[in-house]
Amino acid sequence: MAKPDRDAEFTEYVGARQAWLRRVAYLLCGDWHRADDLVQSAITKLYASWHRARRADNLDGYARRTLVNTYLAEQRSGWAKWTVLHRFGGESASDPDPDRAAALAGDLDLGLDLKTALSRLPPRQRATVVLRFYCDLSVEQTAQVMGCSAGNVKSQSARGLATLRNLLDPSLIPSMEATR
């Protein structure tokens, strides 16, 4: 395939999936500005490996794994801590996403509580919870995305949900039987 066709194919895919990637990134990092940065980094990596990515059986899964790996790599660096401390005093000053505003309008308190609770999870637990319960991946699919064993996913899910139960109303958290 010629480069212009390749670029058009990539642009079409990213245009269709960018909002979804941004929502997943937001759930991972808890800040819309950082989510935009994560998506941009992931899209750049995806473009660099587009010749391989477009042949994947599950292109969305490939893109999601790229995003999660980008997030986890950022968390291991000092950059994540620096940006949180120095950007707008630790919180973003505004939230330009109208979809998010509409989604939280029905229960703003629950949305804020969940955001706060998710932000208190360690990065790998947070990624596991987001992949399992927001992206609705199985234990095996989550293990593949995160590059770890199914047992590790189960333990990270259990720890993450236990922490969320302590922070939130227990009726809002799925039962552990659903995570096995």
TrEMBL record:
Keywords: DNA-binding, Sigma factor, Transcription, Transcription regulation
Record-given protein name: RNA polymerase, sigma-24 subunit, ECF subfamily
GO process annotations (BP): DNA-templated transcription initiation
Matching InterPro entries: RNA_pol_sigma-70-like, RNA_pol_sigma-70_dom, RNA_pol_sigma-E_actinobac, RNA_pol_sigma70_r2, RNA_pol_sigma70_r4_t2, RNA_pol_sigma_r2, RNA_pol_sigma_r3/r4-like, WH-like_DNA-bd_sf
Single GO MF annotation: DNA binding
Domain RNA polymerase sigma-70 region: 17-77
Entries under Pfam families matching the protein: Sigma70_r2, Sigma70_r4_2
Domain RNA polymerase sigma factor 70 region 4 type: 113-164
Family, similarity comment: Belongs to the sigma-70 factor family. ECF subfamily.
